[in-house]
Amino acid sequence: MNPIDEYIAAQDEMVQENLNEVRDVIRAQLPDAVEKISWGMPTWWDQHNLIHMAAAKHHIGIYPGGDGVEYFTAELKKRNLRYSKGAIQIPYGNQLPLDLIRELADWCGVHHREK
Predict the structure, then answer these.
(1) pLDDT tens, 1-35?
(2) Exposed, middle or buried: residue 114 (CB in 10 Å: 0-12, 13-18, 19+)?
(3) Rounded mean pLDDT of the chain?
(4) Radius of gyration of the chain (CA)
(5) H or E stretch including 115?
(6) Residue by residue, what is the 3-state secondary structure of 56-104?
(7) Could you report the per-residue pLDDT of 34-54, keeping only the tens digit for each?
(8) For residue 19, what is the DSSP state?
(9) Is there a contact between 64 and 72 (Cβ–Cβ < 8 Å)?
(10) Which positions fall inside the YdhG-like domain (predicted)?
(11) Contact yes or no for 9/20 (Cβ under 8 A)
(12) Do the beta carbons of residue 72 and residue 107 sit within 8 Å?
């Protein structure tokens, strides 16, 4: 079992399902990225950290970096998602915005590789 599988398996069942859905979307968008644990959370890496996800008490955190949050701020506001400088919170019990996560992963794949 790889470290991300172990991370997901350590979560509650509902959280596991959500994390696996997010992981599937990110993997599909970043097929060449290496999956690893960085900063204690699942990370997709290709010369740089591209995007992270994490399970929190009340939400899944998506971490596209400060530039990613800034780029998607209007969409995050439209969807009433909480965010901070480099993090987006998706509350448990809400439908996962897989289309947005797909766009975030695409954006991170291009933007962070250009650095």
Answers:
(1) 899 999 999 999 999 999 999 999 999 999 999 99
(2) exposed
(3) 96
(4) 13
(5) none
(6) CCCEEEEECCHHHHHHCHHHHHHCCCEECCCCEEEECCCCCCHHHHHHH
(7) 999 999 999 999 999 999 999
(8) H
(9) yes
(10) 16-105
(11) no
(12) yes
Structure tokens at 29: 């968008």
The contacts found for 8-13 with CB under 8 angstroms, 24 or more apart, are 8/42, 11/55
Place of tokens 């794949």: 109
Euclidean distance between CA atoms 44 and 21, whole angstroms: 15
Token couple for 55: 């399970």
Residues sharing a CB contact under 8 Å with residue 23, sequence separation 6 or more, in sequence order: 4, 8, 42, 53
